[in-house]
């Protein structure tokens, strides 16, 4: 990654525009904020950190580019569980569903994803490398550095999952990963091996967990901040991807400590509020930060009045929905006929229509973006234990979640692959639309298989099969990066 003039200015502007404290806005000029100013005090550094929180959901160059929520949609469109049901409807973002966008070096959405994560990394580096000398309370320095380290680890993890080959615990993992950016530089950086990237990710997370111990979040946007639970959740995700089952189970259990699963009433409320007790991490979006037709809810909700959703409502893989027990509250997240979905004015109704996600109203796409929930941690713990042969532990972890979702559920007696299949089924229905399906298929070395799914229209998806291990599982580096960074090597075309 080369921090170009454009990228560095984006860093500076992000630090300024995203600052929430009025004093910060009053103190510094409206045209730019130097990194040295951001590190003039811990109060200023907190403002810069708030800017990073806002980067997570703010709008970028085009509609459909609104931070991590948008990338979550992209990754799920590349799986088999989100369906575009209408041949005559909007085809916005269809390039991801067709496995084209991530392989087109000139595509603006590919460039957005790459720049988004490195923008977070470059912001994090300013704080990580300068906060120790910043005037202010030591406790504040620890909180700021801990969150910045967690951000840097998480962003590198997201990048290496997309641009690198899958991690294989039984191999050296010397394959090309992504540029590992620990200091901001104008020199183009070569790709670091997958193993080295994961080593640094874990190093950053371990330090973040230490620094964030005892930190209590507060305020209306508290869950936008990264606390020790979130950092442990990152650790669990990374360990699961590395097939380090014991570490994944341990970190997942730590991440959900003190976090209750939501009840069935909250489950059908729209997945749009950080006040939901189950959310461990989420982007709090206030009304005057409305991202309009850019936002997550403009592309995933049931009710926002955009052409994208009005003419092409999101649906679930019909085969997957039919397998959900009728007594499970999660089955209510989609409607078999579309009759009960709160569609926008003039909106279409389709079979298996989504109503899991609801925006503020048909005229407002405001909504808090879910980034980590306790349910995911139960599923990570269950999967890790099942794959390590701890059937009883996996059954217990899975049942702790399922019994809250389904009043008639009984604890599974499955073992081995049958238990793993049951856990993965629950993962698919629980985390639908939250951005995990593509990376789940890739980390498990599974193929994409959309065959036999009756509501996937061949004319729309065009792609039904991608073999496991195919070069198409690796995203291409944007042409802008190839042009400016002569040290980088492109993935196989």
From TrEMBL:
Keywords: Cell outer membrane, Membrane, Signal. It is found in: Cell outer membrane. PROSITE patterns: PROKAR_LIPOPROTEIN. Residues 102-238 form the SusD-like N-terminal domain. InterPro entries: SusD-like_N, SusD_RagB_dom, TPR-like_helical_dom_sf. One of its GO terms (cellular component) is cell outer membrane. Residues 1-21 form the signal peptide. The keyword Membrane applies. SUPFAM superfamilies: TPR-like (SSF48452). Residues 348-492 form the RagB/SusD domain. The keyword Cell division does not apply. Its main location: membrane. Belongs to the SusD family. This is RagB/SusD domain-containing protein. The lineage of its organism: Bacteria, Pseudomonadati, Bacteroidota, Saprospiria, Saprospirales.
């Amino acid at each position: 990654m080369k921090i170009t003039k454009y990228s560095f200015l984006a860093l500076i502007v992000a630090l300024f525009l995203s600052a929430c404290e009025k004093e910060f806005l009053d103190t510094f000029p409206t045209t730019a904020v130097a990194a040295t100013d951001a590190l003039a005090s811990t109060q200023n550094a907190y403002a810069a950190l708030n800017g990073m929180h806002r980067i997570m959901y703010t709008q970028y160059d085009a509609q459909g580019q609104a931070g991590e929520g948008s990338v979550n949609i992209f990754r799920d469109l590349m799986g088999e569980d989100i369906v575009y049901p209408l041949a005559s409807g909007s085809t916005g973002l269809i390039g991801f569903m067709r496995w084209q966008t991530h392989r087109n070096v000139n595509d603006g959405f590919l460039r957005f994803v790459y720049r988004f994560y490195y923008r977070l990394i470059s912001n994090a580096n300013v704080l990580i490398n300068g906060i120790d000398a910043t005037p202010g309370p030591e406790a504040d320095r620890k909180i700021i550095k801990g969150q910045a380290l967690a951000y840097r680890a998480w962003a590198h993890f997201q990048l290496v999952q997309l641009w690198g080959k899958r991690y294989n615990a039984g191999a050296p993992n010397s394959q090309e990963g992504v540029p590992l950016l620990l200091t901001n530089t104008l020199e183009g950086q070569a790709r670091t091996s997958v193993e080295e990237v994961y080593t640094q990710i874990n190093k950053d997370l371990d330090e973040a967990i230490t620094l964030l111990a005892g930190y209590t979040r507060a305020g209306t946007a508290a869950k936008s901040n990264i606390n020790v639970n979130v950092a442990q959740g990152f650790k669990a995700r990374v360990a699961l991807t590395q097939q380090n089952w014991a570490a994944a189970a341990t970190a997942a259990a730590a991440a959900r400590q003190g976090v209750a699963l939501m009840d069935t009433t909250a489950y059908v409320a729209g997945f749009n509020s950080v006040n939901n007790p189950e959310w461990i991490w989420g982007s709090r979006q206030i009304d005057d930060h409305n991202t309009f037709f850019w936002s997550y809810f403009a592309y995933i909700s049931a009710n926002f009045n955009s052409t994208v959703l009005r003419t092409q409502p999101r649906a679930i893989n019909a085969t997957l929905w039919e397998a959900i027990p009728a007594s499970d509250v999660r089955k209510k997240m989609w409607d078999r006929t579309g009759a009960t979905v709160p569609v926008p004015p003039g909106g279409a109704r389709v079979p298996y229509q989504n109503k899991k996600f609801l925006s503020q109203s048909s005229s407002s796409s405001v909504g808090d973006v879910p980034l980590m929930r306790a349910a995911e941690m139960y599923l990570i713990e269950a999967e890790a234990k099942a794959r390590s042969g701890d059937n009883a532990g996996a059954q217990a972890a899975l049942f702790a979640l399922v019994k809250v979702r389904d009043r008639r559920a009984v604890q599974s007696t499955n073992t081995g692959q049958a238990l793993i299949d049951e856990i993965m089924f629950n993962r698919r229905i629980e985390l639908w639309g939250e951005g995990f399906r593509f990376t789940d298929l890739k980390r498990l070395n599974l193929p994409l298989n959309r065959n036999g799914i009756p509501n996937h229209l061949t004319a729309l998806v065009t792609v039904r099969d991608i073999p496991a291990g195919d070069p198409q599982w690796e995203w291409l580096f944007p042409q802008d990066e190839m042009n400016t960074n002569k040290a980088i090597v492109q993935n196989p075309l």
